[in-house]
Amino acid sequence: MRMINRHPGRVSATLLGLLPFLLIMLVYSLASQERLAENPNDKLLPGLEQMTAAVDRMAFQEDRRSGDYLMWQDTTASLARLGMGVGIAALLALVVGLVNGVLPLVRANLAPLVSALSMVPPLAILPILFIVFGLGELSKVMLIVIGTAPIMMRDVAQRARELPTEQLIKIQTLGANSWQVITRMALPQVLPRLIDAVRLSLGPAWLFLIAAEAIASTEGLGYRIFLVRRYLAMDVILPYVIWITILAIVIDQCLRFANRRLFPWYNAGGH
């Protein structure tokens, strides 16, 4: 049988998916043991015990200065910024993307602007955001919005433009006005595509969040990583990076589950 026709079963697929992670862990463990054997004080590749102790110190012991559990405080702050930024971006993408996709006059007016905004490197305008909005929460949230909203707008607009012409003709034949075309025909079919667009935007959103927190913040996962880097505290940095990855995966899977439950017809169509 040709390789192209071989499909793994559920158990085999799970094992094959875990294999790269196990190999990475094995390579890291061997490299860490070798470096620590040569120099027990080596900070570049901390061992499992060192990272476990760091997690216990950051997550389960009160900070001597503030009395807070730093890892949970950082997580709460970062997730609040991420949720607010992505939520605003998704709402803007839904509204602008819908009207761009359905209304030709609006598309002629706004589509070039959206396309231009999607080409602007968000990190390049971060200093401008700090000047305009200050160093508080608003500038961090706005960076996420500016960095993710235009891409999602274009994705939603493309989905709206791909709707079958037959549907558009039929609903107008039944007497629907422009508002009804948008809300009753386009909106239900665009919503699952919006969720997919949000999922694809999570990676860039985390990047923008961590960059903003690293430059101007007093709490947050990105802030903590860049704070301890001056001490070469890889035993803290690596668990934080792993924790961010876990959070991103959990959020992505929650959105995927919501999409399947809310719009089973969309996923049944092979999306």
Topology:
Blueprint: H1 10-38, H2 48-59, H3 70-102, H4 104-118, H5 126-133, H6 137-161, H7 165-173, H8 178-215, H9 221-228, H10 234-262, H11 264-268
Helix pairs in contact: 2-10, 3-4, 3-6, 3-8, 3-9, 4-6, 5-6, 6-8, 8-9, 8-10, 9-10
How is this structure best described in words?
With 271 residues, this protein is mainly α. The chain has 2 domains: 1-45, no CATH class; 47-268, MetI-like (MetI-like fold, Orthogonal Bundle), CATH 1.10.3720.10. The chain contains 11 helices and no strands. Helix 4 crosses helix 6 and helix 8 packs parallel to helix 9.
Number of domains: 2
Uncertain segments: none
CATH class placement of the largest domain: Mainly Alpha
Instruction: Tell me the Rg in angstroms.
Output: 23 Å
Secondary structure: number of strands: 0
CATH superfamily label of the largest domain: MetI-like
Q: Count every helix, treating DSSP H or I runs of 4 or more residues as helices.
A: 11
Q: Roughly what percent helix?
A: over 70%
Q: Percent of residues in beta strands?
A: under 5%
Largest sheet: none
Which class best fits the helix and strand makeup? mainly alpha
Which architecture of the largest domain per CATH?
Orthogonal Bundle
Mean pLDDT rating: 89
Q: Write the H/E string, N to C.
A: HHHHHHHHHHH
How would you sum up the global shape?
globular
